[in-house]
Amino acid sequence: MRLMEEKILAEGKILPGQILKVGSFLNQRIDTDLLAKIGQEIARLYDGEGVTKVLTIESSGIAIAAAAGMAMGVPVVFAKKHKSSNVDGEVYTASVHSYTHNTDYTIVVSCDYLRPEDKVLLVDDFLANGKALMGLAELVAKAGATLVGAAIAIEKGFQGGGDALRAQGIRVESLAILDSMDDNGITFRPQ
Ligand code: 5GP
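A: This is the predicted complex of the input protein with guanosine-5'-monophosphate.
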């Protein structure tokens, strides 16, 4: 998605630890025109796949997931993050290692909101090592639902998570894929 690449080049900031900061248009202030276009592009990519639910993780995935869900006309579910895995009730859980915070946390979703008959599209803002998506895929599997694929705003291709998931047969669509990010700037994988 050319617009996403242009926005990253114009406003993205490279932080230590190979973190890309996009607070000015995606993670803190949200460019709502871009957000609507992200939702439409995700809906276009997965048109005809019979998606019944979009699943993401709080908090930075929610806006993008909501835009995708609105464009597709399906509900959005977000997994909650808990520091401990002692969660009561009828929930599915999975453990995720956080790339940005270098800690482990548990993601939790109510069994009421993810059903065996669902065809689920995973959505997130970033894809780095793939741990967040793997945790979400685990929730889908625990619910006995069908994983249709994943849609990501920005994939850091050089960290390998996206290609590892593709190698497992999971469809992963990223609106921008960074091939490199360093003092010389940012390069994108041709799409
Ligand atoms: P992964 O689990 O694929 O290693 O990392 C993806 C998660 O970490 C995303 O949910 C995202 O919130 C966060 N993340 C990973 N890399 C970045 C980055 O460069 N910038 C920002 N803002 N978040 C990132």
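The CA atoms of residues 149 and 171 lie 5 Å apart. The first strand starts at residue 13 and ends at 15.
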